[in-house]
Amino acid sequence: MNNEPLAYRMRPQTIDEIAGQQHVIGKDTALYKMIINGHVPSMLLYGDPGVGKTSLAFAIAGTTKLPFVALNATKAGKKDVEEVVADARLTGKVILFLDEIHRFNKLQQDTLLPHVENGSIVLIGATTENPFHDVNPAIRSRCGEIKQLKRLTSEDVDLLLERALEDPVKGLGNIAIDMSIEQRKKIADAANGDARKALTLLESTIFASFEEDGVTKVEDSILDSLVDRVGVFGDKKGSHFYNLLSALQKSVRGSDTDAALYYLAHLLENGDLVAVSRRLLVMSYEDIGLANPSIGPQVLAAIQSAERLGLPEARIPLANAVVLMCLSEKSNSAYSALDTAIASIHQGKTGDIPNHLKDTHYSGAKDLGHGGYIYPHDHKIGTFGGWVNQTYLPNNLIGSKFYNPIEAGEEKRLSAIYNRLEKFKTEK
């Protein structure tokens, strides 16, 4: 049997063999029609590992029959780029596939970009990172197409597995294999949309199974043990990790407990307890806020417990914190008010501090006109404590409103106090 990995051997040869990604390369898309007509634009392919970025680049080259060179930006140097440029002079147009393009350095860029501009080199860059964050603007400006590839569905992956089992040349079709449809679909589900992972798992399963009477029989126990070893998708500091953090916060904000727990599970399986804890603490004040002020200390206690416990036990207090936040009343009024005040300052809306609020703890303060502050604690107002009607904002900002209370949870009570005090200000 071919010593090359199954995932490599099963790489599609033309764009018609691509599984999934119909929004990018389906027969009705402009990109498909351009490639069929022999025109390949420079492009960036952005997506999670295993969704087919490299496969699509190879399939485009196979469809157009153009010369094709694959480099990895983490390893390629200026000499590699110059060789591609030299080949382009000899052969005409060359497709350069550059994996990990977000690591493209300036020297490589300066060598390559003029040739991308004049059309002698077609650049297909692939990245797992958001190109608008991590790819140099000079590269983006020269790539007419920026395509985000989606994770494959279980049905897409199952189709790839079926092809691999039936193909006698590139796949496993020359081996008699006894594998049920249910077993195949278990692999497809376990791969979590990663075609490379699915084909690797299939290959491992076949070679871990026993042959009897010329037939390789797949046992459930073998398959289950391999599926359990399949790593959770995502790296700790890549775009997908930050997308998970974003999805967690937005699910909590939207009070969807099940979705929030799902994203928390993903994040904890990736193992970065510090980043998850930090985001949860921010959420307790940003999204719950004054509606339930007790949540902040509760989440902090959960985080401290998680840090003391470490994973996997850390998941227990953090799960409690997430459920509490999901089902709590919510308000973002406090930090929104502060952001409004900050924006006001940036807009130049500033003024001199009233003299009665300025520091008077030094000789000469009175000579500067500082003083006249009325001590609120000396003026009791019911059970509230002390309050006195005096000016606190600069004169040119009097009447400015930054805080807009939300009638939710504990903030409903705070809102009533705020509105009552605002009314007091207008009373003579």
From TrEMBL:
Q: Recite the UniProt keywords alphabetically.
A: ATP-binding, Nucleotide-binding
Q: Which InterPro entries match?
A: AAA+_ATPase, AAA_assoc_2, AAA_ATPase_RarA/MGS1/WRNIP1, ATPase_AAA_core, DNA_pol3_clamp-load_cplx_C, MgsA_C, P-loop_NTPase
AAA+ ATPase domain location: 39-151
Family to which the UniProt record says this protein belongs: Belongs to the AAA ATPase family. RarA/MGS1/WRNIP1 subfamily.
Give the matching PANTHER family.
Answer: ATPASE WRNIP1, WERNER HELICASE-INTERACTING PROTEIN 1 FAMILY MEMBER
| Name this polypeptide is given | Replication-associated recombination protein A
* Species this chain originates from: Psychrobacillus mangrovi
Q: What is the lineage of its organism?
A: Bacteria, Bacillati, Bacillota, Bacilli, Bacillales
